[in-house]
Amino acid sequence: MGKEKMRQTFEKFPEEATCPICGKNTDKECALVPIYGTGDGRIIASQPVHVECLLNGVMYYRDYDAIAANAPHGEK
Ligand SMILES: [Zn+2]
């Protein structure tokens, strides 16, 4: 993975996109999150996600060393 500046936040949410966490495209601040499996070593596709949804929905999976949003917070 390169060090290109991918992670930025934007004031406006793209009209044609849908936040994968809340399922809406409310016009709020968003961040571009790289999409796993779409990178070619130089560029990677990214998905707009509300910053608020990211912060409210994020969970760290210590056993897998992974962070996920839109994740179940409770027990199975
Ligand atoms: Zn959202």
- Beta fraction: 15-25%
Which overall shape is indicated by the principal axes computed on the Cα atoms?
globular
- Give unreliable regions as ranges: none
SSE class: mainly beta
> SSE order, as H and E?
EEEHEE
The number of domains: 1
Task: Classify the helix fraction into a percent range.
Answer: under 10%
Q: What Rg, in angstroms, do the CA atoms define?
A: 13 Å
Helix tally?
1
Separation, N- and C-terminal Cα atoms:
33 Å
DSSP, total strands: 5
Cofactors and ligands present? Answer: zinc ion
Q: Kindly report the spatial arrangement of strands forming the biggest sheet.
A: 1-2-3
Main sheet specs: 3 strands, antiparallel
Mean pLDDT: 85
Which characteristics define this entry?
76 residues; mainly beta; two-stranded antiparallel ribbon; binds zinc ion
In short:
Helices cover 9% and strands 24% of the residues. It is mainly beta and 76 residues long. It has one domain.
Describe the structure.
This protein has one helix spanning 51-57; strands spanning 9-10, 30-34, 46-50, 59-61, 66-68. With 76 residues, the chain is mainly β. A three-stranded antiparallel beta sheet has the order 1-2-3. A hairpin with a 4-residue loop joins strand 4 (59-61) and strand 5. The structure holds zinc ion. Zinc ion binds next to loops.
